[in-house]
Amino acid sequence: MIKLSPKLSQKFSYLLLCMAAILTIVPVVVIIFIIIKNGTSAISWEFLTSMPKDGMRGGGILPAIVGTLSIVLCAVLITLPIGVCAAIYLNEYAKDNLLTRIVKLAIVNLAGVPSVVYGLFGLGVFVMFLKLGVSIIAGALTLSIMELPVIITTAQGALSSVPYSFREASLSLGVSRWQTIRHVVFPNALPGILTGAILSIARISGETAPILFTAAAFYVPHLPHSPLDQVMALPYHLFIISTQIPNMPKNIIYGTALVLLMMVLTMSCIAIVARIYFRKRRKW
Amino acid sequence: MVNKIKVENLSCYYNKKCVLESLNINVVQNEILSVIGPASSGKTTFLRTLNRMNDLDITYSRKGDVYLDDNNIFDMKMESLRKRVGMLFAMPIPLPMSIYENIIYAPKRLGLITRESYQDTIVEQALKDASLWNEVKDRLNSSATRMSGGQQQRLCIARILAVNPEVILFDEPCSGLDPVSTAKVEESMLELKQKYTIVLVTNNVKQASRVSDRTAFFLMGKLVEIDKTARLFVSPKEKATEDYITGRFG
Amino acid sequence: MRKSLDAVIETLIFICGMLSIVFVVLIFGFLFKEGFAFFKDFGVLKFITGQFWYPSSEPASFGILPLILGSVLVAVGACLIAVPIGIMTALFISEIAPKGVRDVLKSLVELMAAIPSIVIGFVGMVTVVPLVKNIFNLSTGLTAFAGAIMLAFMAIPTIVTISEDAIRSVPWQYKEGALALGATKWQTIRRIVLKAAMPGIIAAIMLGIGRVIGETMAVMMITGNAAHIPRSIFDPVRTMTATIAAEMGETVRGGMHYRSLFAIGLVLFIITFIVNFTADLFLGKKKNR
């Protein structure tokens, strides 16, 4: 074997690393490109705003869009306040003791539970035990538990990035701990919390497995009337039309995928840009 | 001479390690008491015990008592103690809001503002007392973080004054400031003495001699000597004190 | 008035803090309850080591060994691809790339993480699956191999993000020390940086594995879903996750088959618990250093 000089081996390794980085980003670009290239032709105002027709082989995907939005919105409304409070507890109140360690372990564990297991849990607890049935609210509750650890972690990160000295300054003036959190820590952590929330909305919009048995319906010919309705959901709809329906027009599949992808990517981009913006503007 | 603060047999520990040992000391009403001493002599720990900022540190514990006007501060509610005993930190910490909001922040949170119109008066008075009013009166709504270091430190003083405390603790307040700003802060300290009782912890021996009425010298967690500033600097009783103030160590 | 309101809010915050424990216990308890009812009728050992998954034949057989092997095969395949690429990318981003490139790369990696698994599954189905079929001349492209490729894409963002974090938190004094001794930058990276960041990188790999094992939709669409013990990576396989997702709809609520799926869920829960717990230990080690 030839022994390379350090200089040469450095060049060679850099090249290798660079290629790995390219390999990492190529799939992102390719996936987005394929979906856009094949899906754009299906997108029209009618596609976005009308009901499916002909056994879903025609028409639009409005109920799926509305369904996904309503599930996700409900989920975020449930999970955000709980998650932020839990983060406040962990970051501002919790002492370094056994209880705190158990809470942290629980969060790590919740974050790792497979999404389909959340689906099982939601089915057993919300759909069956609490008798909510397959519904928006059952799906939203399932998703909100799944998203809780993510929200807690990002919110905690945002809270802990607020300098400790701000808390000290406020407390030293005789302001109570909660008032300090409410009026000094929280407002300064808010941008970080919100970007985290947007990212998690993006993430759960694309989740399929947790809503498979808790919220999603194969086909519903009308828009939801109440939180107890079953709904169509974009990711589940994409799953069905790409695997279960024979002779499905390709452009409708790609169009559906494109709508889902754009929804998710737009939110992610907003969050990424917002994060960069707030970091730059930060006053400390 | 009325004793504002009485410290009785106070010992402080971090993680069981003793940093301040059976301290007995009084602070007289309307005086400036400065505390000098080399690093890790326990002077900052002493200061942070007086308004219980140390209670935030879970490794901290203490024995002994501190009385404010004959009330034991460890029996008081933390918030009401800190309202009465304000603290200025080594680095200026303006909150990330406007100058005006910085001043009005604590009075609002403490419910000291009974009428909306009263706010402007509080802000103006506090800034005047901290001799900052003339410099900032035209830009009260600009961000406090954009002021110079000296202005920020005086803003922090004004912020304390706005809650109308009785005692103000200064924790090396000029360690990050240039000589001109330092002079201004010292000037306001002398003004404040009329109304408030001041405890000043400083690494700057000359500053202690310039502003304080009495000076205490701490070494290795013990009070070595306390006396009238004029006397302590001219004829210290202890050898260690003399060595420190003449710059032989520390 | 204000004081008591503060106290109420603080209690509420405490309760929210405890909720994660409640949820973990609930999930585990629930899976355990249903799973246990199943194990009483069908032994644990028979369940885990049984070679045949025929849930709806008479008599039914609930052996999940093929499913476990399916999950493992896909996960191992995905890691073989994702781990080297992920770590090298992380090194590139944190040590070599100029700042502009780094920011773009990091944003793209984040976007990759955001692409829904169903979309990745779909794209895999229309691109990678036929490719695998043609290149390797197989009767079907729906194989563990195709699944491993797509899952690797999903594990890479996790591995990159967490390793990059670990690499970046290596104190610069370490690097400076090595560079001052005349080592090239690459030697420094290989001998010093990689070694110091190792606990974090291992945690990243563990979390990547966790992500892969838990992945459901993409796997279900690409791996062929044949519940038999795979002979090679070019066989169709069925994973535990896909089994739950595919069969739950057809089961009778409360029946044996229904419960067996919860039992699979319990197995998954325990596996991911161990994986995440280990990863957390490594992350903790990194912090304490």
Write up what this structure looks like.
The complex is a heterotrimer of chains A (284), B (250) and C (289). By secondary structure, chain A is mainly alpha-helical. Chain A has helices at residues 6-39, 45-49, 62-93, 98-112, 115-129, 136-160, 164-172, 177-205, 209-212, 234-243, 250-281; strands spanning 52-53, 58-59. In chain A, 74% of the residues lie in helices and 1% in strands. Chain A has a two-stranded antiparallel ribbon. The longest helix of chain A is centred in the N-terminal third of the chain and has 34 residues, at 6-39. Chain B is an alpha/beta fold and 250 residues long. Helix content of chain B is 36%, strand content 27%. The longest helix of chain B has 14 residues, at 179-192. Chain B is globular and about 55 Å long. The model of chain C has no long low-confidence stretch (mean pLDDT 89). Chain C has one domain: Orthogonal Bundle (MetI-like fold), CATH 1.10.3720. Helix content of chain C is 78%, strand content 1%. Chain C has helices spanning 2-41, 44-49, 65-96, 99-114, 117-135, 144-168, 172-180, 185-214, 217-222, 240-247, 256-288, and strands at residues 53-54, 61-62. In chain C, a hairpin with a 6-residue loop joins strand 1 (53-54) and strand 2. In chain C, helix 6 (144-168) crosses helix 8. Chains A and C meet through helix 1, helix 3, helix 4, helix 5 and helix 6 of A and helix 1, helix 3, helix 4, helix 5 and helix 6 of C.
List the helices and strands and how they pair.
The complex is a heterotrimer of chains A (284), B (250) and C (289).
Chain A: H1 6-39, H2 45-49, E1 52-53, E2 58-59, H3 62-93, H4 98-112, H5 115-129, H6 136-160, H7 164-172, H8 177-205, H9 209-212, H10 234-243, H11 250-281
Helix pairs in contact in A: 1-11, 3-6, 3-8, 4-6, 5-6, 6-8, 7-8, 8-11, 10-11
Chain B: E1 3-14, E2 17-28, E3 32-36, H1 43-50, E4 60-68, E5 71-72, H2 78-84, E6 85-88, H3 99-109, H4 118-129, H5 133-136, H6 149-161, E7 167-171, H7 179-192, E8 197-201, H8 205-211, E9 214-219, E10 222-228, H9 229-234, H10 239-245
Parallel strand pairs in B: 3-8, 3-9, 6-7, 7-8
Antiparallel strand pairs in B: 1-2, 1-4, 4-5, 9-10
Helix pairs in contact in B: 3-6, 4-6, 6-7
Chain C: H1 2-41, H2 44-49, E1 53-54, E2 61-62, H3 65-96, H4 99-114, H5 117-135, H6 144-168, H7 172-180, H8 185-214, H9 217-222, H10 240-247, H11 256-288
Antiparallel strand pairs in C: 1-2
Helix pairs in contact in C: 1-11, 3-6, 3-8, 4-6, 5-6, 6-8, 7-8, 8-11, 10-11
